[in-house]
Amino acid sequence: MREKIKKIDYWLVAILILAAFLYGWNIWKAGYANQFYTAAIVSMSKSWKAFWYGSFDPASFITVDKPPVALWFMVICVKIFGFHSWSIVLSSVLFGIGSVFLMYKLIKPYFGRLAANLGALFMTLTPIVVANSRTNNMDATLVFFLLLAGYVLHKSIQKHKPLLVLVSFALIGIAFNIKMLQAFMVLPTMYFFYFIASKQNWKKKSLWTIAATASLAVFTLAWPLAVDSTSKSSRPYIGSSTNNSVLNLAFGYNGTERLLGQSTGTGGAFPGMNSKNKGKAGNMPGGNKPSQSKNGNMKKPSGTKPSGSMKKPSGQIGQGGPGGNNQAPGKNQKIANSTKTKQPSNSMKKPSGKMGGQKPGKMGKGGPGGKGGGQGAGGGIFNVGKAGPFRIFQTALGQQVSWLLPLSLIGFVIAYFNEWRKKRKWFKFNKRQTHLLYWFGWLVPVYGFFSMAQFFHPYYMIMIAPPIAALAAIGIASFVENKTKKKKVEELAEHDSKEENLANDDVVEVEKEAKFASKVNTYLMAVAVLATAGLQAWYVYEYYSWATYLLIIAGLAVAAYIVLSANKKFNKKASLSAILVTLLLAPGFWSLTPTLSGESAAIPTSGPSLLSSNNVNGSFGSGSANTKMISYLEKHNGNATYLFATMDSNTAAPYIIKTGKAVMTIGGYNGTDNAISLKKFKQLVKAGKVKYFYLTNDNGNNNAIVKWVKKYGTKVSLSKYGGNSTSSHAMSGGPGNSNGTLYKLSVK
Q: What positions does the domain Glycosyltransferase RgtA/B/C/D-like occupy (predicted)?
């Protein structure tokens, strides 16, 4: 027992506790988090059919825009603990902590405890990792599975068990069914690492690579092919696809459109997003002209009620949302555009300065805290900066993930240099070099993709967090290792002399080489500290100009200390403390902001703006349900399958969450999906499965179904049950916004 206790890495334990605090504290204030996925969680917990397909509604009319694997874990948490604000994000919290642990396990066998602990710490204190781990989006789950796949691949090399290679690539296939092609961004480094690290001959490597690729294909395509091969009349419409196909969703909306710009779903142009439909009128719900269905022969949706084979999640959301104490949504009041049920205390001062993709101290309209709506606090919906090789360094994305990026790049050079000089043949890689190249091979394609991509959210930057954390940690650890070797010059010279029978002149040459290597380490680390501190100084200037000068002074002081102490006895604790304190204070504070504010947004982000008492976050997926309208519909709906039909999911989500009943979204997430034709819709109305249609103002005016509803539907006056003639949804700048009108439908 004592031996086991001695083996415990208490620094790792402390880091995991820190991660648990940052990711888990205040999640009971999460409200509905991302309502789009929360509605799916409710629906999937009520029906096995909805569970399998990842349906948005309990009747399985349409799916969400991602595969269901990540949602499965969330539903399991809800089934175990009941439906609460914390239970819907619990799996993300656990996967976030798990990712920190995997960082440690990946690095330790190659570079030791110091590097492993630093890698885990840097991952923990990456702001976008904190923000993602506090919401019910899929990214925290995705990164965990990618790290797990990498860990299994490394184990297959270390243990000489090639079968584990198949498991590793199978995990990538599972990750595909979390966020589709985003999971494949690590495949280049997986293949490359296996080829350079495996000690097998080329023939065996090739055979195992083919087998691994087959394993990848099986686990990647199992769910998509199972769904696509099912009759369209027996399954839900695939949300955000153009032809009701999972593979179309994977390679279109969740594939090429991420790089080239969106041509489906949201037709309107957003900041930072190149839309092929830009300029077309009203492609956004709430605009004028969403696309119409051209296929009048679309299969009729199943229209079946939830089977009831799964119990309704316990713990209905009452006052203030799940686990909250505020007024429940749906009291006919406007709800702030936020996924949180409780705002931070008004006693907290608003940070000075604003944030966005502009120059320090400036921000255009529509930025966080600005007047543009649709921009989440601290980052915005599509506030991703200007495409180019330095986009990841820009404030829009950099403030979320790039705090240690200069250190990671220079750290890679330091560590690789220290390993390269230990051998004679440049084309042969030792174990440490293969591990370094694994992380660098992860960094490069992800960095390259997001430098060019036209359609993504800032929180996708979690994909680049692991390699940044790993390379920065390894760089520091390699520098410390180089500087703390006792009598390193003499020992290196003596070792080389014995091994290669070098003459005295050669020994002197080796000593000179070792001293040169020490100088290279010194100056590279000094440059890394200066560059990193300088970048961080730029990031904080938008909020705290005084902190900019402190960071610059601290960076200069630490860099000077590293250089001036190069020829003296190296003080490991002092040097490490100086570097870490200087370079972690700013990102550490940024990482703390989602925790302090209880942030759990549809568009997760971080930054001091979250601490503002008038913070507005979340944007998409932050609506409210009109409880009086719900009462009216439940009283007059009879045996209808759907509580009502509407254009988009942001209008429908609060009602699904509140009631657990099906709401038909004929246009899917943004109101632009061709999920059902007018002919099929009229058939459902005639069959009594849809009796009401709720239309927000100017929502889909050019949609054939909307035209028919306006022409033949009967307006229901909300004043009949004590309300206004319209109900309100406080969705600023997105689908489901403004006021709405309820229509009663009938077909003669």
A: 65-223
